[in-house]
Amino acid sequence: MLKIGPYSFHSRLLLGTGKFPDFDTQKKAVEASETDILTFAVRRMNIFEPDQPNFLEKIDVKKYTLLPNTAGAKTAEEAVRIAKLAKASGLCDMIKVEVIGCDKTLLPDPVETLRASEMLLAEGFIVLPYTSDDVLLAKRLEELGCHAIMPGASPIGTGLGIVNPLNIHYIIEQAKVPVIVDAGIGVPSDAAKAMELGADGVLLNTAVSGAQDAVKMAQAMKHAVWAGRGGFEAGRIPKKLHANASSPLEGMSVL
Amino acid sequence: MKMTVNGRDVDLPENVTTVQDLLDHFQLNKELAIVELNQSILDKSTRDGAKLTNGDRVEIVQFVGGG
């Protein structure tokens, strides 16, 4: 079970809802992923085109925990405003703090992320900050009281996988709250690797929504997270420099 | 009545006096809509009855796909 604040989840895969080719594919992908947590962004309604469909109308909202993000915010104050708007939906009290500091890399602004997290914790939110793989920043966020830490594997949407597994390892090792590897996952082995490192969950979006077969990739990611977690819990063998035969050396008939 | 809705200046008919009227006027989905009136976020339970006045700045947002 993945425990975040007062909530418990069966699935350790968190799925983003952006950039799917169509709602039908998205719905099937969400079902195939067997996720419990779906992320969303908060944006203006189009007042002159009211009939545009919304994915929330397509799914049974009660089956999922919604995790809105503060994407679009560049300052802590903007993030707090978006978080409060999200909470006013009455659908959730968790927030993914996302304060982007650079348009090119989409890397999070560490100072604003820290400030926003502090302000939102004071407001009673369940706070999950998206952060870089900086080990000390992760520690500072945890010390503030954040309910989970979400370090990026690599920049958003790149699909480069875990570019600094050592830092992710350090972050997981020191953390007493869940660590969810968020952003940059490209293929199932990336998700499995994150889980093998001991992550409590993986949050991904483009890896599924941008795959040629999003539904199949959603299913593959589900299996990858499950397999990676199993491997972590089972405990891997130590790495050795030289071979060590797994078949017995005695009793060979030909020698 | 003139006001700014989602950054657009709009001129609304006289019968639009509350947030509920405004949402109806633009045929917006009330379940999905989250409303901010003059930088104050409205609680969903009391939102619909909130009165509008000339020059108000209204933001109407919703959840959309995102990662």
From TrEMBL, chain A:
What is the role of this chain? Catalyzes the rearrangement of 1-deoxy-D-xylulose 5-phosphate (DXP) to produce the thiazole phosphate moiety of thiamine. Sulfur is provided by the thiocarboxylate moiety of the carrier protein ThiS. In vitro, sulfur can be provided by H(2)S.
Q: Which residues form a coiled coil?
A: none
* Catalysed transformations (reactions): [ThiS sulfur-carrier protein]-C-terminal-Gly-aminoethanethioate + 2-iminoacetate + 1-deoxy-D-xylulose 5-phosphate = [ThiS sulfur-carrier protein]-C-terminal Gly-Gly + 2-[(2R,5Z)-2-carboxy-4-methylthiazol-5(2H)-ylidene]ethyl phosphate + 2 H2O + H(+)
InterPro entries, from UniProt? Aldolase_TIM, Thiazole_synthase_ThiG, ThiG
- This chain belongs to which protein, by name? Thiazole synthase
Active-site residue list: K96
**In which pathway does this enzyme or protein participate?**
Cofactor biosynthesis; thiamine diphosphate biosynthesis
Describe its assembly. Answer: Homotetramer. Forms heterodimers with either ThiH or ThiS.
Domain of life, per the record?
Answer: Bacteria
Location in the cell reads: Cytoplasm
From TrEMBL, chain B:
This protein is called Sulfur carrier protein
Family annotation (CDD domains): Ubl_ThiS (cd00565)
One Pfam assignment: ThiS
